[in-house]
UniProtKB/TrEMBL annotation:
It comes from Rhizobium halophytocola. This is Simple sugar transport system substrate-binding protein. Belongs to the bacterial solute-binding protein 2 family. InterPro entries: Peripla_BP_I, SBP_2_dom, YtfQ_transport. Residues 1-23 form the signal peptide. Residues 29-277 form the Periplasmic binding protein domain. The keyword Transferase does not apply. The keyword Transport applies. NCBIfam families: YtfQ_transport. It is found in: Cell envelope. Gene3D superfamilies: 3.40.50.2300. Keywords: Signal, Sugar transport, Transport.
Length: 320
């Protein structure tokens, strides 16, 4: 193996120094998934801003939700000889070959917001939240909220095969484990979009006595929750009261819903994944310092008690 590994081993010996420095004169390819959610839009905006502030030439490719487009984009970045690649992988599997190609070309790859099932040797680091923990926080919040009451839960999953869909499901199940009164009665993908969230929620409501049999909705992101809230209202029920709503991301619109009493809780996912990624690249470029394999971002729970109007005002201009 070439330069990448040689520098990597040298810096592992030197310890995990992590000095944020400018990474000017770098060309970085970014393969973004698409624009399925408000959170994704904010991540795109922030990545472009962060690149500009640091004088990085960012080559942006929108994969429109298709892994094959992401693989093509990565190959094109490799052919162009970029200094590094950022990729937000739409699904967790199927990355080995193209990651090997990047490694052979000595181009470090950083995963943003989602993980892959490839060997850790094939990428430099992953900047992500603890996706299992997010789901667990949501589940624990709901268990506490409903107490001893029987509660039938419907779940809107993210994109099938994506790491947040897999991990947020697992985490939520862990969060409600030991509470026999809480049961997931229906679970289906809403692909992280408002439209599908609404569509699938409509089918859940129809199948469950117009929603009378549903006590709570757990959505793997806020956008699906916002779509589902609309479906609940159209079914003549009160979201947030008749059906509790808990989701993940903390996008501005969910705070408006919380302010109106139509959503109950959300777990924040920062859209600034690029900042830590560019810091890691700058340090690597400067003296070969390797970042840890996982740069973990924070996950914070917000409820209606957290002044949702104020949080909405803070977040609304941030690119969501
Ligand atoms: O990978 C992060 C997830 O992808 C966000 O929670 C969701 O909104 C997005 O589509």
């Amino acid at each position: 193996m070439k330069r990448f590994t040689a520098l990597a081993s040298a810096t592992v010996l030197a310890g995990l120094m992590f000095t944020p420095v400018m990474a000017a004169d770098m060309t970085v390819g970014f393969s973004q998934i698409g624009s399925e959610s408000g959170w994704r839009a904010a991540e795109t905006t922030l990545t472009k801003q962060q690149a500009e502030e640091r004088g990085i030439d960012l080559k942006f490719a929108d994969a429109q939700q298709k892994q094959e487009n992401q693989i093509k984009a990565l190959r094109s970045f490799i052919a162009q000889g970029v200094d590094a690649i950022l990729v937000a992988p739409v699904v967790a599997t199927g990355w080995d070959e193209v990651l090997e190609e990047a490694k052979d070309a000595d181009i470090p790859v950083i995963l943003l917001d989602r993980t892959v099932d490839s060997s850790k040797d094939l990428y430099m680091t992953a900047v992500t939240s603890d996706l299992v923990h997010e789901g667990k926080v949501a589940g624990e919040w709901l268990a506490k909220e409903v107490g001893d009451k029987d509660c039938n839960i419907v779940e809107l999953q993210g994109t099938t095969g994506s790491s947040p869909a897999i991990d947020r499901k697992k985490g939520f199940e862990e969060g409600i484990a030991g509470h026999a009164n809480l049961k997931i009665i229906r679970s289906q993908t809403g692909d992280f979009t408002r439209t599908k969230g609404k569509e699938v929620m409509e089918s859940f409501l129809k199948a469950e006595d117009g929603g009378k049999n549903i006590c709570a909705l757990y959505a793997h992101n806020d956008d699906m929750a916002v779509g589902a809230i609309q479906a609940i209202k159209e079914a003549g029920l009160k979201p947030g009261t008749d059906i509790k709503v808990v989701s993940i991301d903390a996008v501005p619109d969910i705070f408006l819903a919380m302010e109106n009493g139509e959503a109950n809780a959300t777990v924040e996912l920062t859209p600034n994944m690029a900042g830590p990624a560019f810091d890691a690249l700058a340090a690597y470029k400067k003296d070969g310092t390797m970042p840890p394999k996982w740069i973990q971002t924070e996950s914070k729970l917000y409820t209606q008690a957290d002044d949702p109007k104020a949080v909405y005002e803070e977040k609304k201009g941030l690119g969501y």
